[in-house]
Design goal:
Blueprint (H helix, E strand, L loop, with lengths): L2 E3 L4 H17 L3 H5 L8 E6 L2 E14 H7 L4 H11 L4 E12 L4 E4 L14 H7 L9 E3 L5 H4 L3 E2 L2 E2 L5 E5 H8 L1 H6 L2 H19 L3 E4 L4 E3 L2 E5 L8 E7 L2 E5 L7 H4 L13 H18 L2 E3 L8 E6 L5 E5 L7
Parallel strand pairs: 5-6, 6-9, 9-10, 14-15
Antiparallel strand pairs: 1-2, 2-3, 3-4, 4-5, 7-8, 11-12, 12-13, 13-14, 15-16, 16-17
Protein backbone atom coordinates (compact mmCIF):
# COMPACT_ATOMS: atom_id res chain seq x y z
CA UNK A 1 0.00 0.00 0.00
CA UNK A 2 1.47 3.32 -1.08
CA UNK A 3 1.07 6.51 0.89
CA UNK A 4 1.66 10.18 0.25
CA UNK A 5 1.09 13.10 2.63
CA UNK A 6 1.18 16.87 2.19
CA UNK A 7 1.75 19.75 4.59
CA UNK A 8 3.74 17.79 7.17
CA UNK A 9 7.18 19.29 7.99
CA UNK A 10 10.16 17.01 7.35
CA UNK A 11 11.50 17.49 10.89
CA UNK A 12 8.26 16.20 12.32
CA UNK A 13 8.35 13.34 9.83
CA UNK A 14 11.70 12.32 11.25
CA UNK A 15 10.15 12.21 14.70
CA UNK A 16 7.19 10.30 13.31
CA UNK A 17 9.33 7.64 11.63
CA UNK A 18 11.51 7.16 14.70
CA UNK A 19 8.55 6.63 16.97
CA UNK A 20 6.71 4.44 14.44
CA UNK A 21 9.79 2.24 14.13
CA UNK A 22 10.08 1.83 17.88
CA UNK A 23 6.42 0.95 18.09
CA UNK A 24 6.72 -1.64 15.40
CA UNK A 25 9.87 -3.33 16.65
CA UNK A 26 9.45 -3.32 20.41
CA UNK A 27 5.65 -3.11 20.70
CA UNK A 28 5.85 0.14 22.60
CA UNK A 29 2.67 1.64 23.99
CA UNK A 30 0.63 3.32 21.25
CA UNK A 31 0.52 6.43 23.37
CA UNK A 32 4.12 7.28 22.61
CA UNK A 33 3.35 7.68 18.93
CA UNK A 34 0.17 9.63 19.55
CA UNK A 35 1.99 12.16 21.67
CA UNK A 36 4.45 13.21 18.96
CA UNK A 37 2.12 14.00 16.07
CA UNK A 38 1.94 17.15 13.97
CA UNK A 39 -0.85 19.66 14.30
CA UNK A 40 -2.92 17.36 12.06
CA UNK A 41 -3.54 19.83 9.23
CA UNK A 42 -3.46 18.41 5.74
CA UNK A 43 -4.32 15.31 3.81
CA UNK A 44 -2.76 11.93 3.16
CA UNK A 45 -3.24 9.63 0.18
CA UNK A 46 -3.15 5.85 0.30
CA UNK A 47 -4.01 3.11 -2.20
CA UNK A 48 -5.99 0.13 -0.93
CA UNK A 49 -5.80 -2.14 -3.94
CA UNK A 50 -7.31 -0.07 -6.73
CA UNK A 51 -9.13 2.27 -4.36
CA UNK A 52 -7.68 5.66 -3.47
CA UNK A 53 -8.22 6.67 0.16
CA UNK A 54 -7.45 10.20 1.29
CA UNK A 55 -7.33 11.00 5.00
CA UNK A 56 -8.52 14.56 5.64
CA UNK A 57 -7.71 16.33 8.88
CA UNK A 58 -10.39 18.46 10.44
CA UNK A 59 -7.89 19.79 12.99
CA UNK A 60 -6.85 19.26 16.59
CA UNK A 61 -7.74 20.63 20.01
CA UNK A 62 -5.50 20.90 23.05
CA UNK A 63 -6.81 19.55 26.34
CA UNK A 64 -5.32 19.22 29.82
CA UNK A 65 -4.90 15.61 30.89
CA UNK A 66 -7.01 16.13 34.00
CA UNK A 67 -9.87 17.21 31.75
CA UNK A 68 -9.46 14.08 29.64
CA UNK A 69 -9.34 11.81 32.69
CA UNK A 70 -12.69 13.20 33.82
CA UNK A 71 -14.23 12.02 30.53
CA UNK A 72 -12.95 8.44 30.88
CA UNK A 73 -14.49 5.67 32.95
CA UNK A 74 -12.17 3.77 35.28
CA UNK A 75 -9.46 4.08 37.91
CA UNK A 76 -8.50 7.74 37.60
CA UNK A 77 -4.98 7.33 38.94
CA UNK A 78 -4.24 4.52 36.48
CA UNK A 79 -5.77 6.49 33.61
CA UNK A 80 -3.66 9.54 34.50
CA UNK A 81 -0.50 7.40 34.55
CA UNK A 82 -1.29 6.01 31.10
CA UNK A 83 -1.88 9.47 29.68
CA UNK A 84 1.22 10.98 31.24
CA UNK A 85 3.35 8.33 29.51
CA UNK A 86 2.02 9.60 26.20
CA UNK A 87 1.91 13.30 27.07
CA UNK A 88 4.63 14.15 29.64
CA UNK A 89 3.75 17.85 29.46
CA UNK A 90 0.14 16.91 30.35
CA UNK A 91 -1.16 18.67 27.24
CA UNK A 92 -3.18 16.29 25.09
CA UNK A 93 -4.09 16.74 21.43
CA UNK A 94 -7.57 15.65 20.41
CA UNK A 95 -7.78 14.87 16.71
CA UNK A 96 -10.66 14.66 14.21
CA UNK A 97 -10.26 12.94 10.83
CA UNK A 98 -12.49 12.23 7.84
CA UNK A 99 -11.81 10.04 4.80
CA UNK A 100 -12.43 10.42 1.07
CA UNK A 101 -12.84 7.22 -0.94
CA UNK A 102 -12.26 7.31 -4.70
CA UNK A 103 -13.40 3.96 -6.07
CA UNK A 104 -12.58 4.98 -9.63
CA UNK A 105 -16.26 5.41 -10.45
CA UNK A 106 -17.52 7.27 -7.38
CA UNK A 107 -16.37 9.74 -4.73
CA UNK A 108 -17.53 8.87 -1.22
CA UNK A 109 -16.79 10.94 1.88
CA UNK A 110 -16.77 9.15 5.24
CA UNK A 111 -17.78 11.74 7.88
CA UNK A 112 -17.37 15.48 7.46
CA UNK A 113 -15.69 16.88 10.56
CA UNK A 114 -17.03 19.76 12.66
CA UNK A 115 -17.60 22.32 9.96
CA UNK A 116 -18.84 25.51 11.63
CA UNK A 117 -19.96 23.62 14.75
CA UNK A 118 -16.54 23.13 16.33
CA UNK A 119 -13.78 25.24 17.82
CA UNK A 120 -11.72 27.65 15.67
CA UNK A 121 -8.96 25.04 15.35
CA UNK A 122 -11.40 22.61 13.73
CA UNK A 123 -13.50 22.71 10.56
CA UNK A 124 -10.66 22.05 8.10
CA UNK A 125 -12.05 19.08 6.17
CA UNK A 126 -13.41 21.20 3.32
CA UNK A 127 -10.16 23.14 2.84
CA UNK A 128 -8.12 19.95 2.90
CA UNK A 129 -10.50 18.30 0.46
CA UNK A 130 -9.85 21.15 -1.95
CA UNK A 131 -6.10 21.01 -1.28
CA UNK A 132 -6.19 17.32 -2.23
CA UNK A 133 -7.62 18.30 -5.63
CA UNK A 134 -11.35 17.76 -5.14
CA UNK A 135 -14.36 20.06 -4.98
CA UNK A 136 -17.33 19.59 -2.63
CA UNK A 137 -19.74 19.43 -5.56
CA UNK A 138 -17.87 16.36 -6.84
CA UNK A 139 -18.79 14.30 -3.78
CA UNK A 140 -21.53 11.88 -4.75
CA UNK A 141 -22.21 10.15 -1.44
CA UNK A 142 -21.46 10.82 2.24
CA UNK A 143 -21.48 7.89 4.66
CA UNK A 144 -21.80 8.80 8.33
CA UNK A 145 -20.29 6.66 11.06
CA UNK A 146 -22.66 8.38 13.50
CA UNK A 147 -24.36 11.71 14.12
CA UNK A 148 -22.24 13.47 16.73
CA UNK A 149 -21.47 17.06 15.76
CA UNK A 150 -17.79 16.48 14.98
CA UNK A 151 -18.85 14.01 12.28
CA UNK A 152 -21.89 15.72 10.75
CA UNK A 153 -21.15 19.43 11.30
CA UNK A 154 -19.28 19.73 8.00
CA UNK A 155 -22.40 18.78 6.05
CA UNK A 156 -23.77 22.31 6.20
CA UNK A 157 -22.77 25.95 6.17
CA UNK A 158 -25.58 27.74 7.96
CA UNK A 159 -28.62 26.01 6.47
CA UNK A 160 -27.00 25.32 3.09
CA UNK A 161 -25.69 21.95 1.92
CA UNK A 162 -21.91 21.95 1.61
CA UNK A 163 -22.07 18.94 -0.72
CA UNK A 164 -24.93 19.92 -3.05
CA UNK A 165 -24.80 16.82 -5.25
CA UNK A 166 -24.25 14.25 -2.50
CA UNK A 167 -26.69 11.83 -0.96
CA UNK A 168 -26.05 11.33 2.76
CA UNK A 169 -26.34 7.82 4.22
CA UNK A 170 -26.66 6.74 7.85
CA UNK A 171 -27.60 3.57 9.68
CA UNK A 172 -31.35 3.34 10.25
CA UNK A 173 -30.91 2.93 14.02
CA UNK A 174 -28.73 6.02 14.13
CA UNK A 175 -31.23 8.12 12.20
CA UNK A 176 -34.17 6.91 14.29
CA UNK A 177 -32.39 7.84 17.51
CA UNK A 178 -30.96 11.28 16.72
CA UNK A 179 -33.60 12.66 14.37
CA UNK A 180 -36.67 11.78 16.45
CA UNK A 181 -38.23 14.47 18.65
CA UNK A 182 -39.15 12.09 21.49
CA UNK A 183 -35.54 11.09 22.23
CA UNK A 184 -34.40 14.70 22.14
CA UNK A 185 -37.14 15.85 24.48
CA UNK A 186 -36.30 13.14 27.00
CA UNK A 187 -32.53 13.78 26.92
CA UNK A 188 -30.66 15.89 29.50
CA UNK A 189 -30.27 19.54 28.49
CA UNK A 190 -26.56 19.25 27.64
CA UNK A 191 -27.22 16.26 25.36
CA UNK A 192 -30.00 18.03 23.49
CA UNK A 193 -27.34 20.09 21.73
CA UNK A 194 -26.12 16.92 20.04
CA UNK A 195 -29.65 16.12 18.86
CA UNK A 196 -30.00 19.64 17.51
CA UNK A 197 -26.65 19.46 15.72
CA UNK A 198 -27.70 16.25 13.98
CA UNK A 199 -31.02 17.71 12.93
CA UNK A 200 -29.41 20.94 11.70
CA UNK A 201 -26.89 19.01 9.60
CA UNK A 202 -29.27 16.42 8.14
CA UNK A 203 -32.46 18.43 7.53
CA UNK A 204 -31.29 20.29 4.38
CA UNK A 205 -30.46 16.94 2.77
CA UNK A 206 -33.79 15.47 3.81
CA UNK A 207 -35.64 18.41 2.30
CA UNK A 208 -33.69 17.93 -0.95
CA UNK A 209 -34.45 14.18 -1.01
CA UNK A 210 -30.75 13.50 -0.45
CA UNK A 211 -30.84 11.49 2.77
CA UNK A 212 -31.10 7.70 2.94
CA UNK A 213 -30.73 5.04 5.60
CA UNK A 214 -29.39 1.49 5.49
CA UNK A 215 -29.20 -1.61 7.64
CA UNK A 216 -25.98 -3.02 9.09
CA UNK A 217 -23.91 -5.15 6.70
CA UNK A 218 -25.48 -3.54 3.63
CA UNK A 219 -23.30 -3.27 0.53
CA UNK A 220 -23.45 0.46 -0.10
CA UNK A 221 -21.21 0.71 -3.13
CA UNK A 222 -18.94 -1.56 -5.10
CA UNK A 223 -16.21 -2.53 -2.65
CA UNK A 224 -17.71 -0.65 0.32
CA UNK A 225 -20.01 -2.28 2.88
CA UNK A 226 -21.35 -1.25 6.25
CA UNK A 227 -20.16 -2.87 9.47
CA UNK A 228 -22.19 -2.54 12.68
CA UNK A 229 -20.08 -1.17 15.55
CA UNK A 230 -22.89 -0.26 17.91
CA UNK A 231 -22.37 1.12 21.41
CA UNK A 232 -20.71 4.50 21.07
CA UNK A 233 -24.05 5.55 19.61
CA UNK A 234 -27.09 3.34 18.88
CA UNK A 235 -26.25 3.01 15.19
CA UNK A 236 -22.49 3.64 15.17
CA UNK A 237 -21.19 2.10 11.93
CA UNK A 238 -17.86 1.33 10.32
CA UNK A 239 -17.15 0.98 6.60
CA UNK A 240 -15.18 -1.87 5.08
CA UNK A 241 -13.27 -1.09 1.88
CA UNK A 242 -12.00 -4.15 -0.01
CA UNK A 243 -9.97 -4.25 -3.21
CA UNK A 244 -7.56 -6.83 -4.64
CA UNK A 245 -7.33 -8.75 -1.38
CA UNK A 246 -6.66 -5.60 0.71
CA UNK A 247 -8.99 -4.51 3.50
CA UNK A 248 -9.37 -1.14 5.18
CA UNK A 249 -11.95 -0.66 7.93
CA UNK A 250 -12.89 2.93 8.71
CA UNK A 251 -14.13 2.50 12.25
CA UNK A 252 -15.35 5.94 13.30
CA UNK A 253 -15.04 6.41 17.07
CA UNK A 254 -14.16 2.85 18.04
CA UNK A 255 -11.16 4.45 19.81
CA UNK A 256 -11.27 7.97 21.27
CA UNK A 257 -8.06 8.01 23.29
CA UNK A 258 -5.36 5.84 21.73
CA UNK A 259 -3.05 6.19 24.72
CA UNK A 260 -5.61 4.40 26.89
CA UNK A 261 -8.12 2.38 24.89
CA UNK A 262 -5.71 0.19 22.92
CA UNK A 263 -3.95 -0.87 26.10
CA UNK A 264 -7.26 -1.26 27.94
CA UNK A 265 -10.28 -1.54 25.58
CA UNK A 266 -12.64 -1.81 28.56
CA UNK A 267 -12.26 1.93 29.26
CA UNK A 268 -15.34 3.81 28.09
CA UNK A 269 -15.77 7.54 27.60
CA UNK A 270 -18.61 9.80 28.68
CA UNK A 271 -19.66 10.34 25.05
CA UNK A 272 -20.66 6.66 24.71
CA UNK A 273 -24.42 6.14 24.57
CA UNK A 274 -24.04 2.62 25.97
CA UNK A 275 -20.69 2.32 27.73
CA UNK A 276 -20.82 -1.43 28.29
CA UNK A 277 -21.74 -2.15 24.68
CA UNK A 278 -19.15 0.31 23.38
CA UNK A 279 -16.39 -1.42 25.39
CA UNK A 280 -17.53 -4.87 24.24
CA UNK A 281 -17.65 -3.76 20.61
CA UNK A 282 -14.19 -2.19 20.85
CA UNK A 283 -12.69 -5.35 22.35
CA UNK A 284 -14.25 -7.54 19.66
CA UNK A 285 -13.24 -5.22 16.84
CA UNK A 286 -9.62 -4.82 17.94
CA UNK A 287 -9.27 -8.59 18.34
CA UNK A 288 -10.66 -9.14 14.85
CA UNK A 289 -8.50 -6.38 13.33
CA UNK A 290 -5.36 -7.88 14.89
CA UNK A 291 -6.23 -11.43 13.83
CA UNK A 292 -6.96 -10.44 10.23
CA UNK A 293 -4.20 -7.80 9.94
CA UNK A 294 -6.70 -5.22 8.75
CA UNK A 295 -5.64 -1.68 8.03
CA UNK A 296 -7.92 0.54 10.11
CA UNK A 297 -8.75 4.23 10.02
CA UNK A 298 -10.11 5.92 13.13
CA UNK A 299 -11.56 9.43 13.36
CA UNK A 300 -9.75 10.26 16.61
CA UNK A 301 -6.33 8.67 16.24
CA UNK A 302 -3.59 11.21 15.45
CA UNK A 303 -3.61 12.17 11.78
CA UNK A 304 -3.87 10.36 9.42
CA UNK A 305 -5.41 7.87 11.84
CA UNK A 306 -4.52 4.79 9.76
CA UNK A 307 -2.51 1.77 10.85
CA UNK A 308 -2.58 -1.78 12.15
CA UNK A 309 -3.57 -3.37 15.44
CA UNK A 310 -1.27 -5.82 17.20
CA UNK A 311 -1.66 -7.73 20.45
CA UNK A 312 0.83 -6.79 23.18
CA UNK A 313 2.35 -9.02 25.86
CA UNK A 314 -0.23 -7.96 28.44
CA UNK A 315 -3.25 -8.99 26.38
CA UNK A 316 -4.05 -5.46 25.30
CA UNK A 317 -3.31 -3.92 21.93
CA UNK A 318 -0.82 -1.62 20.21
CA UNK A 319 -1.57 0.64 17.27
CA UNK A 320 1.13 0.58 14.57
CA UNK A 321 0.74 3.59 12.24
CA UNK A 322 1.26 3.30 8.51
CA UNK A 323 4.48 4.68 7.05
CA UNK A 324 4.18 8.27 5.82
CA UNK A 325 7.04 9.44 3.60
CA UNK A 326 8.25 12.97 4.20
CA UNK A 327 7.29 15.57 1.60
CA UNK A 328 8.89 19.00 1.62
Amino acid sequence: MNTFCDRMPSKLHTIFFTIAFLLYTVMFNAAAWAGEQTDGKGYCRMMVGDVEVIALSDGTNKRLLDQQVQLLQGDREKLKEMLVRAYPDEQMESTVNAYLINTGSKLVLIDTGNGEMGSPSMGNVLNNLRAAGYKPEQIEEVYLTHMHGDHVGGLVSGSERVFPNATVYANQREADYWLGDSNRNEAPADVRRTFQAAKTAITPYMIAGKFKTFDEKDLLSSGIRARALFGHTPGHTGYVIESKGNTLVLCGDIVHVAAVQFEDPSVAISYDSDKAEAAKTRQQFLAEAAENNWLIGDDHIAFPGMGYVQINDDGGYVFVPTDIPAVD
